[in-house]
Amino acid sequence: MSLNEWSETIILAETGEEPTFSDDMSSLMTIVEDAEQGSRGMPDVVVNLSEVDYLNSSNIAQLLRLRKRLTASGARLRICSVRDQVWGVILVTGLDKLFEFHDATATAIASLQLEA
Question: Of 102, 81, 109, which Cα lies nearest the Cα of 7?
Answer without folding.
Answer: 109
